[in-house]
Every structure is written in C-alpha cells, then in structure tokens.
Amino acid sequence: MRKSAVAAAAAAALWAGVAIPAGASTTDPQAPAGDGWIRVTSEELSTKVWNCHWEQTESWGSTKGCATPHKAEGWVKDLKADGYCVQIAIHWKGKNGESDWDYSPEACPEGDKDEFTKAPGDGSHWTAAGRDVWFKKV
Q: What distance in Å separates the CA atoms of residue 123 and residue 80, rounded to the nearest whole number?
C-alpha cells in the first residue's frame, strides 16, 4: 500500500511539473539544513572496512569519492552553466553518539572540479561508525 501511495504522489508531482530527484529528501531528520539534498550513500560500519566508493551524477553536477572510518577523499564537479555551484556534505556518526558534518568546497562555474579530504571530528579526530553522503546544487 505504501509503495502505491508513494508512486501516486510522485506521479502527481511529475504531472504538476515538480521534479523529485531519486533519493531526494527534504524531510529526513538526518539531512543537512535546507531543501534539495540528495542522499548519495549511507553506510553503517559492520566490518573494519567500508565499501569505500561512492559516485553520483546529475545533469547539473557529479561527485565521486571514498570514505573509510578515518577519512573521506573525493571531488565535486559543476556540469552546467546555470548560476549554481555543486557541493557534498558528509555526516559522520560516532560509536559513542558523536556527530560531525563536513562540507566540500563549492565547485563552480561549469567545468570546475574541486577535490577534498575530510576526517570525522573537529580538531580531535575520532573513528566513525557510519556516515551519510549528501549532494546538492547550491
């Protein structure tokens, strides 16, 4: 029943001309502040090594990277001359309830590709138990 309700809502939004990107969430309590963030990946630490790789491409931008419990490295690239930039946010989750948000540089104008390296914790770094990666044009 829930799937048909979601499908009906998506169809109504499409008919009304409202775009809903796959995985988009503006009501998710874990999402960064603001509308339009797309969850690229979410992973909890179940072994000593995460599936390191993430990749997301939209018409307006792309991102690719790798995150372990100790750091994230990757890039964001602006693919469209639309006056917007492209950015990712990483939400690190600690074993003892720690929480940290890191943001990549804003890549723009079209063709700009910015690399980043981030670690969980500010100042004193800690080992993350999970992470979410979010993607948006800003």
A: 35
